[in-house]
Design a protein that fits this description.
The protein is mainly α. It contains 6 helices and 3 strands, in the order H-H-E-H-H-E-E-H-H. The protein has a 3-stranded antiparallel β-sheet. Helix 1 runs antiparallel to helix 4. The longest helix has 24 residues.
Amino acid sequence: MPSARRAPVPDGNAAAADDAHGADALDSARAGVFEALGDPVRRRLLELLIPGEQPAGALVTALQARVRITQPAVSQHLRVLREAGLVQVRAEGTRRLYAVDDAGTAAARAWLARFEDTFAQPLDALATELARGRRERRRTPPDAAAPGNEAAG
């Protein structure tokens, strides 16, 4: 198997190159998770797996109750979820049992957690401004703020 080509690193630092490519691989893996989650059928499959491990047949039946879909199509969706690291499968005789892969969902949660602070501060500021506006409305008499109540001069 041929090795992957690496882009040159400007400072020539091999450790930095390995870190950069490791980050690229991690971003690529995360992209695969979010690409997999981009499909409503795959999101529904994950929702069906929340209570616990399910046989493939039960997943097919549950999906077919809501949408027109074939068993091979469900199998393909499950494969995408498995390759993205969101579900795991184990064989039990001839049955395949699927379950949510906690490691894959933890990676997605960790990536999304980076944005919590990004949203928290503006939302806190919005809450402060809304409270300030309510306070001002309580202090201002209703007729003083109405247009056309200026004193005639």
